[in-house]
Write a structure and sequence with these properties.
With about 450 residues, the chain is an alpha/beta fold. About 40% of the residues lie in helices and about 15% in strands. The longest helix is centred in the N-terminal third of the chain and has 18 residues.
């Protein structure tokens, strides 16, 4: 039986124009699973996006085969909608929340009450691949991870943000999220969150000056406490390299193939960054890692929002958060630690029906609005990109999100990276941990290691 395989499917939920008002959500603020998945965009989503469409289809086929055993003739497809229907893809844990918001939108906007709206659970990690596989069968509005935007634009799966909405999106959301939603000079998506990245958790009875890396390390050494930073991770490692001005980015085509690499690690900036990593590793307080749950005797740790509760439990009354610190490089200059930032975006598919396109844009603008971003934070803990929402009492009371928001001002949105990059970055960090590169290594030795690293990174796009 012919099967149209678009995504790993669950039962779709239809929200009709008859729905009025919105009910209360019973979702709890459990973000560890969702946010960890987002963090792993650095190591998983990139690999997934480079995989072929055939692999995704095979996974779906396996699930379809299992279902077929129960009902041999059943066909599994996403809900089809016509010109009077709008299909939305969001992560499973916000499906109910999105249904409620759609109902509220239609109640407040009777001009769009004639549209039947279908909400399906397709996560940010899968949405881009599914859209590129079959744009026509894909969702009209869908959430996706920011590292997929270039592929989606090239594949014709993203409509530009409606001209009437551009100024509002740019002025109402933080600069990092707006940058993540932009390709070239064109805004292609509505920012949903600014909540993926890393920052400093620390014990305020130990660390007296969280703004200085040298001071943090000295305080931890004096107190006999550990300072955790995962220097052999391509996700965390960039905090040093991007701080000094070294670059590492890739360009891809619509199939996720890497076509060009911009890498400047083999430079004075790269040497300064790697020497600082080596200096950190030489401290008696240093421990390699980034998971509060796996850390012991902690004075400070660089981690993300997904471990906020664990950090609170660990530090108790001494729990505190801050953006990443500055460090003084071997060249005598001071650098603010940087790194990757991650964002969730909401895209609209191009439409031939202008009335439907207007409805999609209006709905996307509403779902990414200040009011809904605050409500989404309260329902599932997603950190807002909207500037006013970030200043709300609820979000401001969240110390981890506040620290991350400050740190994201110094990061770059993470794009797509080859799977081999993450392995290579681990090897670079391991060369420091193993003692292959030490504080006694010459600049020439360090530059040679970086040249090998850079040449290998570039080879992934050739």
């Amino acid at each position: 039986m012919k099967k149209k395989l678009v995504s790993v499917l669950l039962a779709a939920t239809v929200v009709s124009s008859m729905l009025a008002g919105c009910g209360s959500s019973e979702s709890t603020t459990e973000t560890a699973t969702e946010e960890t998945a987002t963090e792993e965009t650095a190591e998983e989503t990139t690999e997934e996006s480079a995989e072929s469409t055939e692999e995704a289809s095979e996974e779906t086929a396996e699930e379809t085969t299992e279902e077929a055993a129960a009902e041999e003739e059943e066909e599994f497809v996403t809900q089809e909608v016509g010109d009077d229907g709008i299909k939305i893809w969001v992560a499973d844990n916000v499906v109910d929340f999105t249904k409620e918001q759609v109902a509220a939108f239609q109640e407040a906007n009777p001009d769009y009450a004639n549209f039947t709206i279908v909400v399906e659970p397709v996560g940010e990690g899968d949405a881009a691949g599914n859209m590129i596989t079959d744009v026509e069968a894909g969702a009209d509005i869908y959430a996706f991870a920011q590292d997929q935007i270039a592929r989606l634009v090239t594949a014709g799966a993203l409509e530009e943000v409606a001209p009437d909405n551009v100024d509002a999106v740019k002025s109402e959301n933080d600069a990092g999220a707006v940058s993540a939603a932009t390709v070239g000079d064109t805004l292609y998506a509505y920012p949903l969150t600014s909540d993926n990245g890393y920052f400093l958790y620390y014990d305020k009875s130990v660390v007296t000056d969280p703004s200085s890396l040298e001071a943090i390390v000295a305080d931890c050494e004096a107190a006999g406490k550990n300072f955790y930073f995962e220097i052999n991770s391509g996700w965390y490692q960039t905090a040093f390299f991007f701080a000094t001005g070294a670059e590492l980015t890739y360009e891809t085509d619509d199939q996720g193939n890497f076509t060009a690499a911009n890498v400047t690690y083999a430079s004075d900036a790269g040497v300064t960054a790697l020497k600082e990593i080596i200096e950190l590793q030489s401290s008696s307080a240093f421990q390699n890692g980034s998971s509060v749950g796996a850390a012991t005797n902690v004075g400070a740790i660089v981690d993300g929002t997904w471990d906020a509760q664990a950090a609170q439990d660990l530090f108790g009354d001494n729990y505190a958060c801050a953006k990443l610190p500055e460090f003084e490089g071997a060249d005598g200059q001071t650098y603010q630690m940087s790194g990757f930032g991650g964002y969730k975006l909401l895209g609209v598919k191009p439409q031939t029906n202008e009335e439907k396109l207007a409805a999609c844009d209006a709905l996307a603008a509403y779902l990414s609005s200040e009011e809904v971003q605050i409500a989404r934070y309260e329902a599932v803990g997603w950190g807002p990109s909207n500037l006013n929402a970030q200043q709300s009492d609820a979000v401001q009371a969240d110390e981890a999100l506040t620290a991350l928001a400050e740190q994201l001002q110094y990061t770059i949105p993470q794009g797509q990276y080859p799977g081999d990059y993450w392995t290579l970055a681990t090897s670079l960090g391991d060369s420091v941990i193993s003692g292959e590169l030490t504080v006694d290594s010459t600049d020439d030795d360090i530059l040679a290691a970086l040249q090998t690293f850079q040449d290998t990174c570039i080879s992934y796009a050739q």
